[in-house]
């Protein structure tokens, strides 16, 4: 497979205003005592998050886990805990959700477009190019904290 990076996005910490947390910057170790909401451990986004915290020897307290990102967003929006919000791909998050940047080293992920190692047909190349343009458009419209 040929993997082309098409999007690099920061992953914020997020919570509903009803949860009562109020920081603009969060140290990874500050999340140890918080109620966390996350995707299932086999999800690629969750794997990225887990690697970030494992590297810092930090174990998070996941109270709720779901396979579906929309379910995770719904639980966040209900105010029962904190989670991780990708800045580009999760733009449908409620305006009541407060975002904070992990510091001193932000959490980021790269999304790749993967295609077979063989030569692409013209239509495959056109589709690949369109997908790249779509991701570039989304990257320019990142969530801001």
From TrEMBL:
Pfam families the record matches: LysR_substrate (PF03466)
Protein name: LysR substrate-binding domain-containing protein
Top-level taxonomic group: Bacteria
Domain LysR substrate-binding: 26-119
InterPro entries: LysR_subst-bd
Coiled coil stretches, renumbered: none
